[in-house]
Amino acid sequence: MPDPQTALLLIDVQQAFDDHSAWGGARNHPQAEANIARLLQTFRESGPMVVHVRHASTTEGSPLAPDQPGYRVKPEAAERPGEPVIVKHVNSAFIGTSLHEQLQTMGIRSLVIVGATTDHCCSTTTRMAANLGYQVTFVDDATWTYDKRHPDGQVMDAELVHRVNVASLSGEFADIVMTDDLLAGIRAGGS
């Protein structure tokens, strides 16, 4: 059973990310949503807190704008009544939101982070969470990103972008785990 002071934080698991071309092309971890669903089920069954984060873009025409179909949550991460939903407008789920205050009120000291995208909102939120004193677990195969074009024109593969970002988080800002290992730890009684 996960520690009751731990929350699963689902970041931007929204339908806009189904349009790979809008985000740079190919993506890594096609199984990320399935892994998120497995983690979500386990956290719901075990009792710890689940917190959803949605990105509501203020950029006109953005697929993540609240009036666009892409704003909707993917079915694998559908919110349930009673689960807090934080709406953010920037990369960090802590900026301009009540996330930190809500977590403090609930007695949450540890976060398990999943979602999109590795190098933007997941990384930024992870770094800030660690700086705020949370113990952070970043689930490698329950996050994903897309190919990125460097200013010099070179396209960097999504898996490389993902791995470099995860390596930058490892140890300094978060413990890095895979879904199966985290679930095995929960079943064994750890968090």
Write structural notes for this entry.
The chain has a single domain (6-187), classed as Rossmann fold (3-Layer(aba) Sandwich). The chain is α/β, with parallel strands linked by helices and 191 residues long. The model has no long low-confidence stretch (mean pLDDT 95). Helix 4 links the parallel strand 4 and strand 5 (135-144). Helices cover 32% and strands 21% of the residues. The strands form two sheets. Strands 3-2-1-4-5-8 form a six-stranded parallel β-sheet, sandwiched between helices. The radius of gyration is 16 Å and the shape is globular. Pfam families: Isochorismatase. One of its GO terms (molecular function) is hydrolase activity. Its EC number is 3.-.-.-.
Question: What keywords describe this structure?
Answer:
191 residues; alpha/beta; Rossmann fold; six-stranded parallel β-sheet; two-stranded antiparallel sheet; 6 helices
Fold topology:
Blueprint: E1 6-11, H1 20-23, H2 32-46, E2 49-55, E3 85-88, H3 99-105, E4 110-116, H4 118-131, E5 135-144, E6 148-149, E7 155-156, H5 158-169, E8 175-177, H6 179-187
Parallel strand pairs: 1-2, 1-4, 2-3, 4-5, 5-8
Antiparallel strand pairs: 6-7
